[in-house]
Amino acid sequence: MHVATGAAPKLTVATCTSFLQNALAGHHNPQFAMWLAITLFHQNPRNVTMDPFMQAAIEEAEQGLAEGGIPIGSVLVHNGKIIGRGHNRRVQKGSTTLHGEMDALENAGRLPAKVYRECTIYTTLSPCPMCSGAILLYGIPRVVVGENRSFMGEEGHLRNRGVEVKVVDDARCIELMRGFMDAKPELWNEDIGE
Fold it and tell me: Is 101 a residue of the active site?
């Protein structure tokens, strides 16, 4: 990033995410990347998730909402890289099954079983029975959940089957879902089969 003398760099979530990913890959000084993250957080604390992969899932959820759909996003990560990303497209595609996790898996394409067993899936909302079934079917060992206050999915079942489940309780994930559920309760109930 080139910055003119005396000018403050314009920090964005994308800039911060890029620097953090490059730092994790050994391309940038990790202390500098952390400074960027902290600076961005202090500039806009409600819109930053320190984990760049959860941030990508949130961006997918926001895209889904902007398209008129349900704000749930997901990314599939292998060896520190996003290999599939998606968001709930049930409304946009008239689909019965295209939840965020399913869209991310679909967009990752056909992969060897070994790859899935080395992945982490990030999702902005606790995974439903269908998405949890896909996680188990493909042997994905780790799930990072943005929030489970709006909806408690099958986290217990996943844990009982040996999947590591981490809930980050992200404020933006909660805000997206609460706002949507208040605005369109009938569409939310349809999505979860009620």
Answer: yes
